[in-house]
Structures
1.
Amino acid sequence: MAESDDQLATVMSHEIAHALAHHASERIARQQMYQHAADAVNGAMGTMDPERRKLLIGLLGAGAQVRSLAYDRQQESEADHIGLFLMTFRRFTTPNRRFRFWERMQQLASKRGHAPEILSDHPSDSRRIAQIRLWVAQAQAAKRAWKEGRIAPPAGTTERRG
């Protein structure tokens, strides 16, 4: 999908951000929580008619799935946000190139169709582009503050500002 180093950096910084934010661990913990809740509900319905129990468990499972998708979209947005800051602080690409990858994804998606955002585990490409446009200014302001010494580097590092 990536046609340039800038676009590849967008993908790589996004994936690195997932690791930095421990998103895989969060998803595992959330899945375990849902499983414990389902087990508790199933045990509490011991005397319920088997057909009604099956229907209720199905409805609860569908609700958990929709809620899980919202968490997944939130993690994807967070990875976009962190990834943008990583790219800004490492001076990999210019601001106007940071959202080109998502514009390309949007163009490809429009050709093949896609599910509504509420049924997806990722934000829509248009939402991503809009968020990134807002975050570029924040990332640049943070970088300026760091360069001006208003944000200290982590303790024990000797990183150059620039």
Note: The mean pLDDT is 82.
2.
Amino acid sequence: MEYERILELMNKMEKSSLTVFEYTKGDETIRLEKSSNVLTSQIGNSVSDMQSPKFNIVEAEFETTTKGKVVKSPIVGTYYEANSPESAPFIKVGMEVKKGDILCIVEAMKMMNEIECEFEGTVLEILVSNGQVVEFGQPLFVIS
């Protein structure tokens, strides 16, 4: 199943009253499970792969228009560019960042996780939009 289609299914399920969705085609199975308004996903080739709550997705390529270091999401959750809707974003394209600066928040299981920069540089690209669901390892930013 294509990466974009999986994201589409996750977004539709998150907005619906469904709590479990499972689809099998050949030897590939995708299972989406929602509990307490938190969406988790499991993808695998067998039932044994789906025993523990994890989110494994086929490696997808994310192309960027510029070269630099890619900051990836360390967790599955919802991306927020600021502390609140009224607050200014933590970063903007062209902004200088230092090691330890907060780049964004990723909400996972009702916990707000601050994502910090691990190096110094200039923000070249922001690859996600506010409120978007992000996966583990999904590129968020390009920093030179």
Note: Helices lie at 3-15.
